[in-house]
Amino acid sequence: MATKKSDLYVITKVKELTKYVITVTEKSPKKFRFTLVTRLQNYCLDSLEQIVMANLLPVSDPRRLECQKEAGRGLETLGYFAMLCMECECILPKQYEFISKLQAESLMFLGKWISSDKKRNRASSGDMPQKDALVGSPLPEN
């Protein structure tokens, strides 16, 4: 499926990571296919699922943040399993490096998305100070 114009960049990155992991692990030794390979693929798929689920929820829904955090935990865990796969010679070091790069980018964009949602929530709830309210206010004492 082609990337839709409306897809968040984090979704695009995690899809890229997932496709790469699935492609790379197809060639892994058979003894790892139902253990490490399955776990590695599932962490990718689970993270993608959580990100898509979060994107379907309104910004104000607390479940959205929980889905985002769960996706982050899955991506973090994926990094450890990818390292283990490399150490067990299930994937090549260059493949591990590329997985790590995509994982780091995915985590970065997920973090930016979470920050953006927090700002949007503050703005919509009226917690953001008005620019005029700051003018003339005393400076905090040290």
The coarse silhouette is: elongated
What is the tally of beta strands? 0
Strand content: under 5%
Instruction: Give the overall average pLDDT.
Output: 88
Q: Residue ranges: pLDDT <50 for 5 or more in a row? A: 130-140
Report the radius of gyration as a whole number of Å.
20 Å
Question: Could you give the topology of this structure?
Answer:
Layout: H1 9-25, H2 36-56, H3 62-87, H4 93-125, H5 131-134
Brief summary:
This protein is an all-alpha fold and 142 residues long. The protein is 71% helix and 0% strand.
Description:
The chain is an all-alpha fold. It has helices at 9-25, 36-56, 62-87, 93-125, 131-134. It has 5 helices and no strands. The protein is elongated, with a radius of gyration of 20 Å. It starts with 8 loop residues before the first helix and ends in an 8-residue tail after the last helix. The relative contact order is 0.14.
